[in-house]
Amino acid sequence: MAIEIKAPTYPESVQEGSIATWHKKAGDTVARDELVVDIETDKVVLEVVASASGTITEVLKNEGDIVLSNEVIARIEEGSEVAPSPAPSIETSQVQSTSLDTDPLVNPAAKKLAEERGIDLSQVQASGKGGRITKEDVVNFTPVSAASSSSAVEESQESAEQQIMEAGERVERRVAMTRMRSRIAERLLEVTQTTASLTTFNEVDMSAVMGLRKSYQDEFVKTHNGTRLGFMGFFVKASVEALKRFPLVNASIDGTDIIYHGYQDIGVAVSTERGLVVPVLRNAENMSIATIENSIGDYAGKARDGKLTIDEMTGGTFTITNGGVYGSLLSTPIINPPQTAILGMHSIQQRPVVVDGEIVIRPIMNLALSYDHRLIDGKDAVRFLVAIKQLIEDPAKILLEI
């Protein structure tokens, strides 16, 4: 009996996807729920598994082809139960093809990371289903005799660079944008052309929050099953309270209408190898700091592994991005439409400030709020950011909601 393999049902915000990687080809046997193909959309990579065991008789879409929602992409002739291939031994994995572009046993994220780190995949032991090399395999890979060979590698690189310099050669490398990166580029350009974006800045003294973390970190971790107390939990709670006071910052524009959202769904920007993604904390107004920190940790792990779903990244009403983790001192974050504002956090530095007429050293963070001036006036944007500053500098107000 012929069984169709179809693309997933995309949400309304996703129009189409493209075939990223086929893990099976026509003639291959496949077990039920075994990974068959990866489909890349402009937001996430979707894994499509076999709905039945059997043999793949027909592949209708090639890698790179456009795929619509629920479109048939392959067919399986249903047969007896087929067990997936066992993970290869060290000897087996070492004789796998070293071609990063053609090896069907390599997860796409693992392949990209291996390219970036210059790792020979034939030396990586696979632990994934069906003998696939996963991203974790690449992350955990330790080259044999790395210490003894490092000097030789450096000498080889220096020699090659010297030869290029002496020959006066200019080396270029051209690759196609991924669908996700292409869509990110389109959306960022669209934002600059369709919004009246403006940014206001302030600075916040992080002494109180840092003091709380120092005093209660161990107890917090023990009470909440290993979840660490970070800064983002405080900023999400502060943003929720400020959004309640300034509903326009939590609103969106739809044509000539303003949509006021009666809830706070906070997007938290997460950087991945494939680009920036923004998973959403649903009803953040009902979350505790521990729940927020735990949810962000889960989302970050999913983002790194390419496991975020489209539903987890759509529908936010306000976004927070933290460039400080990369050392940014100040930036003008770009609004995430149809939202009307985004908060930018930055790195913390010890600075001299005046407190009660005296110069003291305090840990200071710059804050930036980019907002759509079509809907939010400068006065309200400034007051909103000041509200966040006051809540962070006196975090008791967050708990008391005052």
* Total beta strand runs: 18
Strand adjacency order, main sheet: 9-18-17-16-12-15
Task: Give the domain tally.
Answer: 3
> What is the mean pLDDT?
83
Query: What is the chain-wise order of helices and strands?
Result: EEEEEEEEHHHHHEHHEEEEEEHEEEHH
How is the biggest beta sheet arranged? 6 strands, mixed
List keywords for this structure.
single chain, 402 residues, Dihydrolipoamide Transferase, four-stranded antiparallel β-sheet
Note down, in words, how this protein is organized.
This protein has a six-stranded mixed beta sheet with strand order 9-18-17-16-12-15. Strands 1-8-6-3 form a four-stranded antiparallel beta sheet, with no helix packed on it. It is an alpha+beta fold and 402 residues long. The protein has ten helices and 18 strands. Helix 7 (232-245) crosses helix 8 (289-305). It has three domains: 2-78, OB fold (Dihydrolipoamide Acetyltransferase, E2P) (Beta Barrel), CATH 2.40.50.100; 90-139, E3-binding domain (Dihydrolipoamide Transferase, Irregular), CATH 4.10.320.10; 197-400, Chloramphenicol acetyltransferase-like domain (Chloramphenicol Acetyltransferase, 2-Layer Sandwich). It is globular. The longest helix is centred in the middle third of the chain and has 22 residues, at 146-167. Helix content is 31%, strand content 25%.
